[in-house]
Amino acid sequence: MNRGIHDITVPGGPIEITDSGGGPLTIDVEEKTLLFATGTAAVSGDNTIIASPGVNQEIVIVAIQIQNESVSETLAIIKFGSTAKWRFLAKEKGSGFTIPIQNGYAWHVGANTAVVLNLNGANQFGYNIIYYTKAV
């Protein structure tokens, strides 16, 4: 049986869950404000798509979509600062990838680090990213 939880908004603060086989389990939930980065990048080389958040802050990505909007085959690399994290070859217009990060997993970018899209040609790519920032 699938017992997934969908479309639930939880305010910050402790939540108590009682399991039928045991006692209560208290979980402290931190409320997060989701931020959205959307736009296009078309410069050959590094394109900063989310600026570094500042000292003692980190970007945490929960969903990302990158798509080739040109007709040219293009190698694209997602980087956290100068470190390559995900690379793909977008062979034609419309190719790319979408990753909804689920089940509590997320891409932690690192303290005061920007998200960069590197393109091997001056070809236009669209992007949509859902993320939040947190203290580190």
Estimate percent helicity: under 10%
Rg over C-alpha atoms, rounded to the nearest angstrom: 18 Å
Q: In percent, how much strand structure appears in the residues?
A: over 45%
Quick one: how many beta strands? Answer: 11
Distance between the termini: 38 Å
**Bulk shape:** elongated
Give the arrangement of secondary structure elements.
Elements: E1 13-18, E2 24-29, E3 35-41, E4 45-50, E5 57-68, E6 74-80, E7 83-90, E8 96-100, E9 107-111, E10 115-119, E11 125-135
Antiparallel strand pairs: 1-2, 3-11, 4-10, 5-8, 5-9, 5-11, 6-7, 6-10
Provide an overview of this structure.
The chain has 136 residues and is mainly β. Helix content is 0%, strand content 57%. It is built from no helices and eleven strands. The protein has strands spanning 13-18, 24-29, 35-41, 45-50, 57-68, 74-80, 83-90, 96-100, 107-111, 115-119, 125-135. The strands form three sheets. Strands 3, 5, 8, 9 and 11 form a five-stranded antiparallel beta sheet that branches. It has a four-stranded antiparallel beta sheet with strand order 4-10-6-7, with no helix packed on it. The protein has a two-stranded antiparallel sheet with strand order 1-2. A hairpin with a 2-residue loop joins strand 6 (74-80) and strand 7. It starts with 12 loop residues before the first strand and ends with a strand. The model is unreliable at 1-11 (pLDDT under 50).
